[in-house]
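Board notes (copied after class):
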Amino acid sequence: MVSCPVPHGVRVLAGVYRAAGHLPTLGSLDERLGLQREAYLLSMHPDLAEIRGLGFTYYVTGPYSPTLARAYDQLECAARGAPRPAPGALEYAREVLRMDPARLGAVALLAFLCEVAENTGSLGAADVRESAVSMVVDAEVRAELPQALEALRDLAAHHGLRLPGPCAGGP
């Protein structure tokens, strides 16, 4: 096993990318934001929960892990010898990795806001959507928000994910 000084969650994430044949390139800000969003959504799968340990917070346009950001240049090394995800987790990962950037941004933002709302007891589903609309500057991501909750619920139903309260039910 190759030794890379990265947190276990980064190693798990790198293993997902390797198994999916999709090790990300991170030459631009958009690619880095995409990786952050993908990682957050991947962490919602029960078999990939170790990724959640990377400590996601809200930053600029959605979920962000400073720990992951510090490990960007070590993903390739971390992928060598990384654990292979369970088949169900890999199927889920492939679905997340196929999302276009606007859909990915909208779904990740809504999932993150629903988690915050559940943890604080502060917002219902409609409030979460309104908050997301007010936070999003990118017109393409804003256009995806109306369909994002349905897409998130479809992902959850198809892959057995637990959604945070405001995303789980209601209009």
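Comment from the instructor: The beta strands are 57-59, 62-64. The radius of gyration is 15 Å.
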